[in-house]
Amino acid sequence: MSLVVETAPAKINLALHVTGQREDGYHLLDSLVTFTERGDLLTARLADTDDFTLSGPFSKGLETDGGNLVIRARDLLRDAVQAAGGDTPPVVLHLEKNLPVASGIGGGSADAAAALRALMRVWNATLPDATLATLALRLGADVPMCLAGRPAIARGVGEDLTPVTTLPSLNLLLVNPLKPVSTPETFRRLARRDNPPMEPLPSSFALTDWIDFLAGQRNDLEPAARQIVPEIGFITTLMNLTGARLACMSGSGATCFGLYETREAARAAERNLRSAQPGWFVQAMTTVSGDEP
């Protein structure tokens, strides 16, 4: 088996409604998610011994042992494949970390999902979809949706996924002030946990219909995250000034996305904000389309 490469794209919560809380503390969500075409890169190849290495602008300080979700994904998948009678020889995994850490765009969950996909290919493994989904959920509530990597409605704690085939490809600008946000702390600061769910999705593939729909939805975590990182409000204001049709925070923050009508408009905004804020993460991205195979 030659080198296998898997992208770990950014997960964007276009809307995130917190609708309840379970007795075990997990929050119930009604969220529309999509994924960028680029992100972190995970490579895997067979070797004489297991190894895991890191590179990239946001790799500093990341763990390379069992505390990293990539390693946990490797170990859990290895156990599952071996239990099914498969062979799991040693592998070298390398993660190129291009996206900010603790930034509300998937991060470690996307990396873990990429590791699962890469290792299934390297080991030529076959597992039932239900088994792989259960394993992904053990790694974290966001990992199942990152494993699918397609536009979806995520309900429950994030594991109940319904594909959204009518969502078009979007031109986004992602901006993060490079201040990490603790997801548990954001949830702790929620004013309420029984908010209304999302409205019915557009049946149209037209971008204008989706912009109008998204403008009426919410990220219930954004007010709480702004208490932790006030720059979030400044970022969305800047995006609106650069012509964004919509500017909102993704996930638990602090990454915000601006939605633009064209790729050229998103790239022009990228140039403007990079010049104005050279210390921030500023990246124009295109998302996958819901009707792609």
From TrEMBL:
It comes from Allorhizobium borbori. Residues 68-149 form the GHMP kinase N-terminal domain. Pathway: Isoprenoid biosynthesis; isopentenyl diphosphate biosynthesis via DXP pathway; isopentenyl diphosphate from 1-deoxy-D-xylulose 5-phosphate: step 3/6. Keywords: ATP-binding, Isoprene biosynthesis, Kinase, Nucleotide-binding, Transferase. It comes from the Bacteria. GO terms for molecular function: 4-(cytidine 5'-diphospho)-2-C-methyl-D-erythritol kinase activity; ATP binding. The gene is ispE. InterPro entries: GHMP_kinase_C_dom, GHMP_kinase_C_sf, GHMP_kinase_N_dom, IspE, Ribosomal_Su5_D2-typ_SF, Ribsml_uS5_D2-typ_fold_subgr. The active site is at residues 11, 142. Its EC number is 2.7.1.148. NCBIfam families: ispE, PRK14608.1. It catalyses: 4-CDP-2-C-methyl-D-erythritol + ATP = 4-CDP-2-C-methyl-D-erythritol 2-phosphate + ADP + H(+). This is 4-diphosphocytidyl-2-C-methyl-D-erythritol kinase. PANTHER family: 4-DIPHOSPHOCYTIDYL-2-C-METHYL-D-ERYTHRITOL KINASE, CHLOROPLASTIC. Residues 216-276 form the GHMP kinase C-terminal domain. ATP binds at residues 100-110. Belongs to the GHMP kinase family. IspE subfamily.
